[in-house]
Amino acid sequence: MSLASLLPAASSPPSPGPADFNLPAIFPWGAEAGVTKPMILLVLSVVLIMALFAAAARPAAVVPGRLQFAGEMVYGFVRDGIGRDNIGSRDFQRFVPFLFAIFTFVFVNNYYGLIPVVQFPTMSHIGFPLALALITWIVYNGAGIARHGFVGYLKHETVPSGMKGPILLLLVPLEFLSNILLRPITLTLRLFATMFAGHLLLLLFSLGAEYLLLHSENTLAIPAGIASALLFVGITFLEILVMFLQAYVFTLLASMYIGEALADEH
Amino acid sequence: MITTQLVAAAEGEDLNPLIPHVAEIVLSAVVFLLLLFLIKKFVVPGFEKAYAARTAAIEGGIEEAQAAQKEAQAALEKYNAQLAEARHEAAGIREEAKEQGAQILAEMRAQAQAEAERITSAAHAQVEAERAQVVAQLKSEVGTLATDLASRIVGEALTDDARSARTVERFIAELEESAN
Question: How do the domains of chain A map onto residue ranges?
Answer without folding.
Answer: 25-262
